[in-house]
Amino acid sequence: MNALEFIVAGMLAAATPFLLAALGEMVAERAGVLNLGVEGLMALGAVIAFIIVYHGGGHLLGFVAAGLASTALSLVFAVIALGLRANQVAVGLAIGILGQGLSALFGKSYESLTVKGLPKLSLPWLSDIPVIGGLFVEDVVVWLSLAATVAIWAIFAYTKTGLVVRAVGENPKAARALGYPVIAVRFAAVAFGGALAGFAGAYAAVVYTPLWADGMIAGRGWIAIALVVFGTWLTSRIFLGACLFGAVSLASLAAQTTGLDVSSQLLSSLPYLVTIVVLGIISSNRRLLKLNGVASLGEPFEQ
Amino acid sequence: MSALSRPFLPVLVRREHASLAIKLVAPSAALGLATLLNLGLYLLMGRDPVAVFHAMLLEPFLSWASFSEVLLKMGPLLLIAQGLAIGFRAKVFNIGAEGQFILGAIFASAIPIWLPQATGQWIWPAMLVLGALGGALWASLTAFWRVRLNANEILVSLMLALVAAQVLNYLLLGPWKDPAGFNFPQSVMFQYDAMVPILIPGTRVNVSLLIAFAFSLSAWVFMQRSFAGYKLQVGGLAPRAAGYAGFNEGRAIWLSLLIGGFAAGLAGAAEVAGPLGQLQRSISTGYGYAAIIVAYLGGLHPIGIVFSALLMAALYIGGDNAMVSANLPVAAVRVFQGSLLLAYLIAIAFVRYRLEWRDAAHGSAP
């Protein structure tokens, strides 16, 4: 397998934690809520899933429990930031610190232990295509995440639910005047984002690298938040961004294994450097951000 | 009818003015709430909550030896938090102080590592200055990205903090590794003149604590008494008004980030030129992130921050105590820190609002 085939085959799996977390954050931001706690939500989901799978509970139960735990933590965010109208930036940071702390606390006695990942399912014929065939050999969570991506895109493009979420984010006063429960919609969007962040963390811990290490999320939650900006709050562009980051993390892995003469620290910081550069490029196009951005993002709603 | 005005649901009503007493009660209530929640958690983990409470919250203050360690930890937290609070009041969210702290430590270490034979009382002050410049330089990248490229400073400063940790790893595993250090990722021990002089004999508390207090005083003068500080605060509270008044937003962002980076870099320099005496991987135990909590807990006010920095420093020392005496994992400190900030944000909401129980028959909230 050459480097290109290696990257193609692993790209979607590497992209999945970014994709799930970023889509969840996108939904919350579309509703006007900036939740900066994604890193902590992912870390909590990761440790819960790992503990359950390690004790033989199985991957399904692991993912469900991770989703529930992260949803619960995201609801703490919602109560304080939306219910009590506290500063969303501060509440998000606090949730992030708390989630990472809980993750380290619960995971302490599991350090360096491993679990079994998930088998890959290959699509017949398509997986035999040279070079890109690897794209069609993925585990079930990747396939489900792709389905979820299409579903979220369709909900925002075609359904009233999507329209209501956007209305609440764009102009909460008008949405309220039309009779939509602004706070309830925002709670639901935050909870949805929490569940997806939990799944993202679970995927990272029990499928992608099924080994427990404190701090294993390693900034992926923050990159997911950046991905929402890169994707200008659009599902399709966020998907492409997640694939880019999947490829970048694999490329640095491939470069390390082929013994390329680049320091491993430079390669480890590659995803962060790419984030900084892309964020600069996309954000400097102010018109693009204004066109797609969410008008009431981060502002508390008082009726 | 919205979810908040259904029958018998509480409604938040903004207070006309919050008394000073309520403002002071809020942080204490937050500490109480966080303490209760965490003791409950320790009970669930099968630890003796009374023993943990004693080790974590009382012991740091019970002996001079441990209180002096609290003062030692207070220095960097106080410095970083004062710098961050200035930015937070201007609504410039620099959350990458951890990276600016690391760069400060690296810049300061350059002097003793490149000039190991140098002697003279100029070395430690030069290290502090260089460290502060290093922190400000790292923060200036964020400022450039924010002002010139319109990029979100929260994300950029955090990403740069993650990069800074890798830069530190690179130096300690490569060019700056102590050749006689048994392959540990650490630099050589610094010479005597690279050490900040001890302030209180018999302890490790050094002159950098005085510098932190001096910086706090300057922060107070700057924010409460200077026109530049006033412009920053207006920019944070009413960005449009600041625009109409002709206050330059870009300049406010540059100033906020440079001050934050300067203070964090100074703290990083003081850490390697103080208790550590060398550059090592664990130069910061999350000071940059803990300082965010310190800043909020102190009400973003220079005087409040002095007290919250003392509290947070005690939590660090108390956490170490509880690890030894009550077998509590060190991660418990991070859980406590996170819940303390959440509890504070809840408490402060009740300073701004009061709860009123209304039913739908009397109409919805105004």
What's this model, at a glance?
The complex is a heterodimer of chains A (303) and B (366). With 303 residues, chain A is mainly alpha-helical. Chain A has helices spanning 3-30, 38-54, 59-83, 88-107, 140-158, 160-170, 172-177, 182-208, 220-230, 235-257, 264-268, 270-283, 286-292; strands at residues 120-122, 137-139.
Helix percent of chain B reads: 55-70%
CATH topology of the largest domain in chain B: ABC transporter involved in vitamin B12 uptake, BtuC
The CATH class name of the largest domain in chain B reads Mainly Alpha
Count of the domains of chain B: 2
Query: What is the CATH first-level class name of chain A?
Result: Mainly Alpha
Notes on the structure:
The complex is a heterodimer of chains A (303) and B (366). Chain A has helices spanning 3-30, 38-54, 59-83, 88-107, 140-158, 160-170, 172-177, 182-208, 220-230, 235-257, 264-268, 270-283, 286-292; strands at 120-122, 137-139. Chain A is mainly alpha-helical and 303 residues long. Chain A has a single domain (3-292), classed as ABC transporter involved in vitamin B12 uptake, BtuC, CATH 1.10.3470. In chain A, strands 1-2 form a two-stranded antiparallel ribbon. In chain A, α2 (38-54) packs antiparallel against α3 (59-83). Chain A starts with a helix and ends in an 11-residue tail after the last helix. Chain B is mainly alpha-helical and 366 residues long. Chain B has two domains: 1-47 and 340-366, no CATH class; 67-327, Orthogonal Bundle (ABC transporter involved in vitamin B12 uptake, BtuC), CATH 1.10.3470. Chain B has helices at 20-44, 49-62, 64-89, 97-114, 123-147, 153-173, 208-225, 227-237, 239-244, 249-276, 287-297, 302-325, 331-352; strands at 9-14, 353-358. The longest helix of chain B is centred in the last third of the chain and has 28 residues, at 249-276. Chain B is globular, with a radius of gyration of 22 Å. Chain B starts with 8 loop residues before the first strand and ends in an 8-residue tail after the last strand. Chains A and B meet through α4, α8, α9, α11 and α12 of A and α6, α11 and α13 of B.
